Every structure is written in C-alpha cells, then in structure tokens.
Amino acid sequence: MLATSKNVQAQTPYRTAIGLGIDLGDGESLFGPQLKHSFGGRDAGNVQVLFGDHITVIGADYSYNQRIAGAKGLTWYVGVGPQLSFIDHGKWDDDWYDDDDKHWKGETHTDFAIRPALGMEFRIPSTPLAMHFDWKPWWNLSHGSHFEASRFSLGFKFVLK
Predict the structure, then answer these.
(1) Which of 11, 116, 157, 161 lies at a CB distance of 3.0 to 4.6 Å from 17, suitable for a disulfide?
(2) Three-state SS for 89?
C-alpha cells in the first residue's frame, strides 16, 4: 500500500496552488485569480474568476495531468469545463459575432460556454512556483452559438502544498 501511495503522489507536481490566470487571444484579454487542486493521481480541478471590460467570467475545469519523463517539474494536460460569462451592456460582442447577431446588444446577459484545454505546466524545482500555458478554445453555446479557436490561457501560481 505504501508503494501505491508514492506512485499516486509522483503523478502530480503539487496538491494545491493559487495564482493569476490570464485568458487571451481573439477578443478581449481577461485577468483574475485561479486555484488548481489535484485530487490524487492524474486528476485535477481548476477554478477561476476572470475580469475584463464589462465582463466577468467564472469557470471550472477538470484536467487529466501526466508528467513528461526526463523533464523534472514539466507536465502536459488535457481537460474541459463549463464557463459562465456575465456581460454588461453587450460590450463583449464586438469581435465575436456577426452584425446580424446583435439581438441582445445594449443589454446585460449571461453566456454559457464549454472550454476544452490542452497545455503544459511547469513547476520550478525546489520552489513553490508554477506556470502554465494552454490552448483553450471558447465554445459559446448561448446567444448565437460561436466557436473561437484562437484563445489561450497563461497562469502563474504559488504552490501551497
């Protein structure tokens, strides 16, 4: 049983970390706090609250994480999660929607999206610091469904455990 416990711990570079998340690409850049927690083995969850001009985004993701052999502290991951965007006065629609899809322009509304992710994370050995970069497309499923492939996420974390 002790050997199994060590193997599970060896799959993740840390248990819990908090930090700054940055969501960027086509459209507005968003910034805010994030928290990542490993559930043991290769499974982890990430939550974030991001802010931009007239928009607040709340998201939660599941990710499958795997260390890269021979690269201490480096992991790759794939994941997916839901996201709610609270948009004030239709400001967010400028870059993402056709001119014909402005039926909610000028109104406050909430969008629901699915965000798949594929990325890499690096924990700096012997420090409590980690960072990630991923491709994180935005698939909006409300107010005129739209898929935006040109979105990325960057994060800087402080490892708590």
Answers:
(1) 157
(2) coil
Task: Determine the length of the chain.
Answer: 161
pLDDT tens string 56-80: 999 999 999 999 999 999 999 999 9
Outline where DSSP puts E strands in the chain: 16-25, 30-38, 43-52, 55-67, 74-87, 109-123, 129-135, 138-140, 146-148, 151-159
Span of 24-38, 46-60, 100-114 with lowest mean pLDDT: 100-114
How many other CB atoms are found less than 10 A from the CB of residue 110? 11
AA letter at 121 = E
Give the Å distances, CA to CA, from 132 to 65, 97, 138.
12, 29, 18
pLDDT in tens, 118-141: 999 999 999 999 999 999 999 999
CB 52 within 8 A of CB 28: yes
